[in-house]
Write a structure and sequence with these properties.
Number of domains: 1
Radius of gyration: 21 Å
Number of strands: 0
Shape: globular
Distance between the termini: 12 Å
Structural class: mainly alpha
Number of helices: 15
Order of helices and strands: HHHHHHHHHHHHHHH
Largest sheet: none
Length: about 400
Amino acid sequence: MDQSRLLNVDALRGFALLGILSVNIWLFADPYFASGVNNPRYGGGLDIAVRFVVALLFETKFYLLFSFLFGYSFTLQMAAAERAGAAFRPRMLRRSAGLAVLGVLHGCLLFYGDILHLYGLLCFLLLALYGRQRRAIEVAAALLLLAALMLAALGVVLLLGGEGAPDLKPVFAKLAAFHGEARSTQAYITGEFPSTVALLLFGQGPSAFAMFLIGMAAGREQLFARADALRAWLPRVLRLGLLGAGGAVLYALASELAPGGAMVIFATALSVLTAPFLTAAYVAALLMLFDSRHGAHVIAALAPMGKLALSNYLMQSLVMAVLFTGYGMRLCDALPPIAVLALVPAIYLAQMALSAWWLKHRTYGPAEWLLRAITNWQWLPQEAGAQPPSR
């Protein structure tokens, strides 16, 4: 397989990490984030603008890109098993279990909003459908529609039942835990993780699995290896992004103007249907950039991040925990939104440099090495300076 196409997959994965960080950092920095109430300490015009931009460009979009690439990588794992002459299903069962365990540890110790456990669990479902994915796109569309309908039904229930005053006790509990000692931070994170698991399964599970299926279908067609055919479609996909942009605007407005009401639930339901178009437009724009005269430099910058995506995802949580919780500096609720947003490129660029340096000395990131050892059920040495093909 053309290694430049595989580098494109790594580069897309590296870009996805930027969006994931841009959303997750608020769960550390702002105790009011996702509480149904905007932070009263930061209600100025600039604060509102920053929250609006984050909701518009990042929220509900980048976990879809990550999920699509996970599904695409599923087919790369199939190809790797075939090259190694190994049975695919046992390898993926071990990989799924390893991912789920890593996710649970991550969710209990660092970040209760972990998505790795969800990917591990959904991968078991993907394996159950292994060999019967001929109508993957139709099933994915049905899942997205089902997720939107469930959210819309929830919005109707809230609307008919009346919208009471938001409960701020969780906000104060989080603030107290993150401003306390490391022990209180860890206890809070562990306590929040089980309820977050249920929320993610309901709120993101159907959409994530739909994107798994779409990514797997794209991988079966070797989408990123068919450069000429793909190039002709990119402008059309980019235009389709206008559908996603419309839904994103409505979602961002509802998130800022009515964060705790039925309106934001309805807007989220609409976003479930439209966000994949905006995510696809992001991919198209990046692939067009990769194909430009500056593309090689962009790929060279992003691909190391993507090759170490698992390690970088975990590292982001560690850095944010040190910055904002009792594990370190306790800056939760201490920074205005513009300062929080400014931390995103600072953390990301530092990771970019560290990833490039690491791959000059090691083949795999520490988390990738561990997951690969579990997948192959073999203790593997870290080889210095080697550059393996993308997973």
